[in-house]
Amino acid sequence: MIANFFSKTRPINFLILSVLIIVVYIIGLGNNLSGGFSFMFLIKKSAFLIPIILVIFILNFIIRKNLLTEDNTYAIFFYIMMLGFFSNSF
Asked: Membrane-spanning regions, if any (predicted)?
């Protein structure tokens, strides 16, 4: 099922991958939450989420221009999963 979903590049794939990176980011923040939770903390951490999403779209551009994957979004999916596995980088 996941192979059929990511086998072709469609706009819905990027929407779902964007939601996935937000979920992975929130889970990573929850794991690293040692102090209190404040509004300023939320603003600082959400400001870091924007460059992460931009890096994903830049990565997609590089992959498409160099023809590293034919016409699928597996590379972006694996990049997001690697960010999730190493969530201490957030």
From this structure: 12-30, 42-63, 72-89
d(CA 79, CA 60): 10
30 Cα distance to chain centroid: 16
Answer positive or negative: Cα dihedral of 36, 39, 44, 49.
positive
54-59: which pairs have CB atoms within 8 A and are 24 or more residues apart? 56/17, 56/18, 56/21, 56/80
Full domain range(s) for residue 64: 10-89
Per-residue pLDDT tens for 7-55? 666 778 888 888 988 888 888 777 766 666 778 877 887 888 888 888 9
Q: Is residue 4 part of a domain?
A: no
Whether 3 is covered by a domain: the verdict is: no
